[in-house]
Amino acid sequence: MPLLRLPEPYGFELSTERFRAFGPDRANLWHDGGLHRVVAGAEVRIEPATGGVKVSRLDPGTEPVVRKLLGAEFDLDAFSSFAGDDSVLSRLVRSLAGFRPPLAPDPFESLVTSITAQQVSLQSAFSVRNRLIERYGDPGERAIAFPIRARLLHAREDDLTALGFSRRKAEYVIGLARSPLDFEQLAGLPDEDVKARISAIRGLGEWTADWFLA
Description:
By secondary structure, the chain is an alpha+beta fold. 45% of the residues lie in helices and 11% in strands. The protein has two domains: 93 residues, TATA-Binding Protein; 107 residues, Hypothetical protein, domain 2 (Endonuclease III, domain 1, Orthogonal Bundle).
């Protein structure tokens, strides 16, 4: 498989622990030492490798998705320099060397995931999120693609409450899918403008906006 180089140090198992810690993640599925995700209609497998990761299908369409998913965008050198002078953070930097926080590659996925995590345990959030993925996502060989926005445009609140969403969270997810929020436009805006536009949507407050911008 082709090699995708990542900034060193990089610990694949440490960085992908969140996809196992709270139960299986159907959109980012850990299987036999590798991570599976459906990208542009085809499943990609990511495995650890010296200098980065091996990717079963590495091309201009999949590379930015994999890089985003694995947190390659983070400037960890700057954080390490800052944290080195802090008595608590400096210990974490040493113990978590190689850790890169993974990110949801798709903004709609990121916001829906944040809604599922509001005021519940992460185990519960993962469970509800998985049922949404299984109901509305397109399956690959092992993983299932996170549902695209268009698939939820015509969903009803009762459809989502049947999956375990509260009535209010079902309203928020459907409202987000039907909202005029332009994700491509958000990418070019200052953080404060992004927060204002996200917070203007019912159910997406400052906490969700900060999650999105993290």
